[in-house]
Amino acid sequence: MAAQVFSVSEVKHLLDQGAQLVDVLSEDEFEHDHLPGAINIPLKQLDATTASRLDRNRPVLVYCNDFG
Amino acid sequence: MLDYVPGKTAWYEDNQPREGKAVDEIWIGDVAGSDVPTCGLADRIGEVRRRTGDWDTCVVVDPEGVVLGLLRQKELAADPLATAEAVMRPGPKTFRPNVTLQELLKSMRDHEIQTNSLVTTAEGRLLGVISRADAEATLAHEQAAQTRTDS
After folding, report:
1. What's this model's pTM, rounded to 2 decimal places?
2. Of B13, B36, B84, B121, which sees the most CB atoms within 10 A?
3. What's the rounded Cα separation, in Å, for the pair B112 and B34?
4. Is residue A67 a contact partner of residue B7, using CB atoms and an 8 Å limit?
5. Is the ipTM of this complex over 0.90?
């Protein structure tokens, strides 16, 4: 996966275009806070089965905490 | 698949909305007052003082709203013909909007800050200010409401 540095406005634009937002942090972290509309697929659980929740015809934008 | 590398920290530092339990927390971006007076580097103190009215603070910003300096009472009382740039306190301490009110108050108490604290994005764009008094009052109000809910 190519890492891209998007700005907040670019993320908003992608979401307006129908992109799906995936939070790959733990369930606890997700329950505490996440970006509006995101779904949670923790990185350790990310596989073909869990990814089947996603619409293959729409862009998928994944995020974690930060650059680290 | 696209990787939003800056992640949720960058999103929150831009004062964007959140979902989850954290909605019940008070983040300072939620409560910072955005009506604080601002001025440019070249503005004269006499004019700035007229515009600030009852405020004891004026934030010096660039055309994009990025904080450059701060004028408090002492600087606002300087030579009316002096420019903001000449008398401002450069590079003031700022806080990100995703800092909780409790965290801000702890910092204010630890550093004996009684005045307005500036809230900016990670790029330094001014979002607003929050005074020590407002922070204390908001937290006390929230804690009282929580106590009523719990009892």
Report:
1. 0.88
2. B84
3. 23
4. yes
5. no
